[in-house]
Write a structure and sequence with these properties.
Helix content is about 0%, strand content about 55%. By secondary structure, the protein is mainly beta. Belongs to the jacalin lectin family.
Length: about 500
């Protein structure tokens, strides 16, 4: 259903200067803004429909000034979600304008001084058309909205069963119920948020044991990750591992197949919201600036997309000037302090989120600074490096995690503790006795140190090394018997 928001800005404008691009489009492709010191002269839009570019209304006469464009990559599922308008009521002209998509925010085009701020937005919807009025300058602007189609990832797991779907018309997931049995996950149920209220989804599978033949392929275990925490494994760590994730997006619904067990699971994704933290420092001095929000920030030297800035620590000089800035990253690194720190401190951060843009005020110096944050993307899947050592024992696998904190070795409970998250394991060296098949010595290397040798190897033992260049170890697997470790392998992810 298409929703029309009335034009914001000058009311009762002359009908001769009103224009309307309509709503018969799939989305907005490009925006061109022309302005000068008096405000926005005119604005025009390019749309797309059925994969083709469609030009909108071209209104206004080009005069000396500036021209800025903002392109929207609909091929990468980017959609225009909202527009912020800065209107000067005394002169009746829009002075500044800023655009927000589901993945980034444009810089402020124009000015905001002495303006009234309006917003064109509808939660969960995208803009597909504009209307407004333009005489000598842009006087008002309104928009047409329709629902954003979520991304649907196909169900993963086994085959067979009856298809089910909870739909995608939710704002998010609030609670997950899982019941497991010896043969796998028996049923799963989700609670969602819709229109600000919690709703209860249906149970998929059965809630108790039954006399039936277990399907060949049944989901054995599940683990859920949010931008803040991990559930831990529910069920068993057996079978073929799969992952359902949308980079930079959140899950708003689930679907899959089930019979008397949960056979497969898929999900619907929508873009994660960008959070704008208001600037700290002098809020009344200097000209406002706004870089908008992007996918991430590369410098100070950040290993994007594997590393994100997670906080900005600053200090103030006399309440209205930024004295210093320090940046921290998702890998536990801290930048040097830029400037001369004072005792008047502030912090810009949002738990589980990465910095994607900055805004603030400045004159000859930086008066204030604020930030845009987006939930961090899920970590990459771990890669399994084959276990090495002797023969014997039963297989085990801890799986992959975000990192290693402490390693315990031997019956005497020797241990090797890491300074997590700054320190991480990069390789394991060891030796084993080919006759008994037992590992006789282990040595761990990190990015900052090498552990002592654990165990007593001999000259006749066979040696091995576990590592992958530019990767860190985030889990272990191998084989062991009642008293002996026979093989050890690792899970790694890119550094």
């Amino acid at each position: 259903m298409i929703q029309r928001l009335e034009a914001q800005g000058q009311k009762n404008s002359d009908k001769r200067y009103q224009w309307d691009d309509g709503s018969d489009h799939d989305g907005v492709a490009k925006i061109t803004v022309r302005g000068d010191l008096r405000g926005i002269q005119y604005i025009w839009f390019d749309y797309y429909k059925s994969g083709k570019l469609v030009e909108g209304s071209y209104l206004g006469l080009p005069e000396p000034g500036f021209t800025q464009t903002f392109e929207i990559n609909h091929m990468n599922d980017e959609q225009l979600e909202s527009v912020e308008i800065y209107y000067e009521p005394k002169v009746g002209v829009i002075q500044g304008i800023q655009f927000k998509t589901n993945s980034r925010i444009s810089e402020l085009i124009g000015f905001e001084k002495d303006c009234t701020k309006f917003s064109l937005s509808v939660v969960g919807k995208k803009i597909i058309g504009f209307h407004g009025s333009t005489s000598g300058s842009l006087e008002s602007l309104g928009a047409y909205f329709t629902w954003i189609t979520p991304t649907r990832l196909v169900a993963k797991g086994g085959q067979g069963g009856k298809e089910w779907t909870d739909g995608a018309d939710h704002e998010g997931v609030t609670k997950i119920y899982v019941r497991g049995g010896r043969d796998g996950i028996q049923f799963i149920q989700f609670n969602y948020i819709k229109n600000g209220r919690e709703i209860y989804g249906s149970a998929h599978g059965v809630s108790g044991p039954g006399g039936y033949t277990v399907p060949v392929w049944v989901i054995q275990g599940l683990e859920f990750k949010t931008n803040l925490t991990t559930s831990g494994l529910i069920g068993f760590n057996t079978g073929i591992k799969f992952r359902i994730a949308g980079n930079g997006k959140k899950i708003i619904g689930f679907h899959g197949y089930a019979e008397k067990k949960l056979i497969s699971l898929g999900a619907y994704f929508a873009a994660s919201p960008i959070t704008k933290l208001e600037y700290r420092g002098g809020t009344n001095k200097g000209r406002i600036w706004d870089d908008g929000a992007f996918d991430g920030i590369r410098k100070f030297e950040v290993d994007y997309p594997n590393e994100f800035i997670t906080s900005v620590e600053g200090t103030l000089y006399e309440e209205d000037t930024i004295a210093s800035l320090t940046f921290k990253t998702s890998k536990g690194r801290t930048s040097s302090t830029f400037g001369n720190a004072t005792t008047n401190k502030f912090v810009l951060e949002r738990k589980g989120c990465g910095l994607v843009g900055l805004h603030g005020r400045s004159t000859g110096a930086l008066q204030a600074i604020g930030a845009y944050f987006r939930p961090l993307p899920p970590p990459p899947d771990g890669e399994k490096v084959e276990a090495k050592g002797g023969n014997g024992g039963a297989s085990w696998d801890d799986g992959d995690f975000e990192g290693v904190r402490k390693i315990y070795i031997g019956l005497s409970q020797n241990s090797f503790e890491l300074n997590y998250p700054v320190e991480y394991v990069t390789s394991v060296e060891g030796s084993y006795d080919n006759k008994s098949g037992a590992i006789t010595m282990l040595r761990f290397k990190t990015n900052t140190q090498t552990s002592p040798d654990f165990g007593l190897g001999t000259a006749t033992d066979l040696s091995f090394e576990l590592l992958k260049v530019d990767h860190k170890i985030v889990g272990f697997h191998g084989s062991s018997s009642a008293m002996l470790l026979h093989k050890i392998g690792v899970h790694v992810i890119p550094i």
